[in-house]
Design goal:
199 residues; mainly alpha; Helicase, Ruva Protein, domain 3; 2 domains; two-stranded parallel sheet; 10 helices; 4 strands; 47% helix
Amino acid sequence: MEISAQHVKELREKTGAGMMDCKKALTEANGDFEEAKKSMERWYWWGIPTFFRCPWNEDPGACDIALVGVPHSSGNGSTERDQHLGPRAIRHVSALYRRSHGRFAITPWRMCRINDLGDVPLPEAMVNDVSVVHIEANGAEDIEQAFDLIVKERADAVDVLQSAVLFGIRGRIAELGLKHRLPIIGGEKVARKRRTTSS
């Protein structure tokens, strides 16, 4: 099937990929525009990099799962060793790493709206003590608002990451989980301890 220059141009405008890449994708898809666009989602060398090639949308209300970068290293962030773990590098290498759970047949990319919301603003990212204070302050202030949103969206549970940053507010997370009758995954020990103490 002959691919017209107009179709190639339209695909380029939609994806930002090069002309030859667009022509190749259209040729392999037998001219099917949507199929060509879908197949190009697997390519990681074009377009704006996002976590796992998720859509970029800074509105938390527009997704079920939000991926947020934290541009901070507790080590020496000026070295390549630390920078390869930063949000920019992770966005580049995660393009082909979408995973599903084979045993339980769970594919979150098809079940949920997952977006890249950008990075946490850390103007002093190279200063460890200051960055930790900023991260902890944001977590403490936003935790109740986060629970309000979780309750509003009728979540089944709250998964707490095993993070030193969240350690200081895990007690408050457990209290809010008990208050709203939400199981806290990763914080069960704290919640159980508080429940035993109160009874």
